[in-house]
Structures are given as structure tokens and as C-alpha cells.
Write the C-alpha cells for this entry.
Amino acid sequence: MGTTPFGEALGGNGRERARRGQGELEAQVLTALHHAPGPATAAWVQQRLGGDLAYTTVMTILSRLHTKGAVTRERRGRAYAWTPAADEAGLAALRMRRVLDGEPDRDAVLTSFVSALSAHDEDVLRSLLARAEDDGGATDRGPGTGRADASDEARGG
């Protein structure tokens, strides 16, 4: 990693960073942690994100990510050292779940998503859903949220 802070590398100046939503800051913090040589302190993350983001803001974002299970932490003296809990694919999945959780009509979002999949992606998704069914992963779902139903509905079936 060079000397360019992640905030600038992601195309922002201090004023734009101050206006960014929590989700964008979370993504930047996770990106910084993925570039860390090991567990990183909040001060290290703050430095990588640019100087005008408050330390308390970084700590708040890290704490929220910890609550969501996106990062882990370990004590280092009086501070914590933070590590991403998942690889890049896991973090992308976390972002996708956050988007889905923020939408009032989950069925419509899933239907739109599934209907836009390539044939290969659809095959992969069907295989994963079948495996989850075999493992008992589709129990206790409400009406209209069954795994096969969303895919069938998206395909007009």
C-alpha cells in the first residue's frame, strides 16, 4: 500500500468523506483492514482513511462492524486490534445482505436480482440452494421467502 489514504484513493476529499453514509464508511474501513499487514488499530485505520476523519468515528464504525460480525478484535494493551472476519467474497456478501435488509420489498429485490443472473450464475445459485436444502438450511421461512419460490417466481414459474 502506498502513501495515498484510502479516502483519497476512493475519490473523495475531506468534505465528501464527512457526507458519506455509514455504509460507505464501513466499506472503506473494511478495505483498509484488508490491506493491513495484520490486525490493525483504529489509529492505523484512521491514518489510512485520511486525516480529517475523527478517531471516534473510526471507533464507532469498527464497533458497529464488530456487532455485525464483520470484524473481530483482540486486546492490545489499552486498545483493540481489528481484523476482517471474512475474505473479500464474504464482505461482498455482507454488503449484499445489507442492501437487501434496507429494502422494504425483499421479494421484489430478490426477484429482480435473480432474473438478471447469467445462465452460469443461475446454475451456481441453484446448486448452492439445493445444497443448503439438503443441509436443512431452508427451514422456518415465512411465506414468499422460500428459496425455490424466489427463483421460480423470478423466472416466471
